[in-house]
Design brief:
Length: 374
């Protein structure tokens, strides 16, 4: 049965509904506990495989199930290419995630890579430089949402905010009239969801990047799973209130949320000011990789990292805390209080790809004073 997401109230109501019978029958993999974030060091000269494998094994041990193919037999990977080639999802991380899923039984043609812009996917080296909106990355299909080939007319987030001319020029002055299959209805109110992540995959993972953003405060796991995962999203970036509300409400759509399983952020490169476009002068690098089922907690850690470097270089902190964090937490999507976030550090023992293993390090409860929220 299809539901039309025609108002935010329906979304908020749906957050508190029990999982559907269909979901239970499909045996969706469970999410790890809210507030739990795994951290693993990036070994020098490694290609992320050992690190990603260790993180996924830690998750599987925690929830007691393997990330093997299920009823649909496909898995999705949401990448982030918004900030340009210098600050996109690392290709080595993407390759490692693909290999980890291959090792668990997914064929490459069943591993779907999704992002919004075909141009930016090509700039990042993920989509082939050919005149096609559907290509592949080393045998994995790549879906560019701006091709408008991967939406379903019945699945969208509704908002009265007008569209952005830069992103949706066809909605102004009749431009492109008759050229799109999505012309029917009040398109300017709708942000269509990524249909492959709803209907084609057993579950999907989110390979976000870390960068500051004027409207969002922090562009991390939550933003990549929501705003950069729908059409007509630039209209929400006019101010903090509309951006944060859209992030939390899109993330809370049950059919999107139920298959959104894990979030990864590499600290090998992140940017603390001047975003969202990449500026190498304001980027930092730490040999760490984070993973969590809780996008709120992982974004809170990212926000603290960004604020640390802003203060060190004499820039003001992001304050108050980005509003999407408490808003998303209020919808049951995660936790943002540092006292409730548990950072579990893993120590890699044997880095060889054929014989990698890990040992659990220690847990750290983040108990510093939380930033004030208005």
């Amino acid at each position: 049965m299809l539901f039309r997401w025609i108002c935010g109230a329906l979304i908020l109501l749906g957050v508190f509904l029990a999982p559907s019978l269909a979901s239970a029958q499909e045996g969706l993999p469970p999410r790890a506990p809210l507030g739990l974030v795994w951290e693993v060091p990036l070994l020098e000269g490694e290609l992320y495989y050992s690190e990603v494998s260790a993180l996924v094994e830690a998750y599987e041990a925690k929830v007691g199930t393997s990330l093997a193919p299920r009823q649909r037999g496909k898995v999705g990977i949401k990448v982030n290419t918004r900030s340009g080639r210098g600050l996109s999802t690392p290709l080595q991380l993407l390759r490692a995630v693909i290999e980890v899923f291959e090792a668990r039984g997914f064929a490459r043609e069943s591993i779907l890579i999704v992002d919004y812009s075909a141009h930016q996917l090509r700039q990042a080296g993920i989509m082939p430089s050919i005149s096609s909106d559907l290509g592949d990355f080393e045998g994995c299909p790549v879906y560019a949402l701006d091709s408008e080939q991967h939406y379903d007319l019945d699945w969208f987030y509704d908002s009265p905010l007008p569209p952005s001319l830069n992103q949706e020029p066809q909605l102004f002055g009749g431009l492109g009239r008759g050229s799109s299959a999505l012309e029917a209805g009040a398109k300017e109110r709708k942000s269509f969801l990524a249909a492959p992540l709803l209907f084609e995959v057993d579950f999907w993972v989110n390979l976000a990047v870390g960068v500051d953003d004027a409207a969002l405060g922090v562009d991390g796991a939550l933003a990549n799973a929501t705003l950069w995962n729908v059409s007509n999203s630039q209209r929400f970036l006019g101010n903090e209130a509309t951006a944060s509300s859209a992030v939390a409400e899109i993330a809370a759509i049950p059919e999107l949320r139920e298959r959104m399983l894990l979030h990864f952020i590499s600290l090998d490169r992140y940017q603390y000011i001047g975003g969202p476009r990449f500026k190498s002068r304001y980027s930092r690098s730490e040999p760490l990789l984070w993973m969590s089922s809780d996008p709120v907690a992982i974004d809170r850690l990212l926000c603290d990292r960004i604020n640390k470097h802003r203060l060190l270089d004499g820039f003001p902190e992001i304050s108050p805390l980005p509003r999407q964090l408490p808003f998303a937490a209020s919808l049951g999507l995660g936790v943002f209080e540092k006292s409730r976030i548990r950072l579990q550090r893993l120590a890699l023992v044997a880095p060889a790809k054929s014989d990698q293993s890990f040992s659990e390090g220690y847990d750290e409860i983040l108990s510093n004073r939380d930033s004030e929220i208005e």
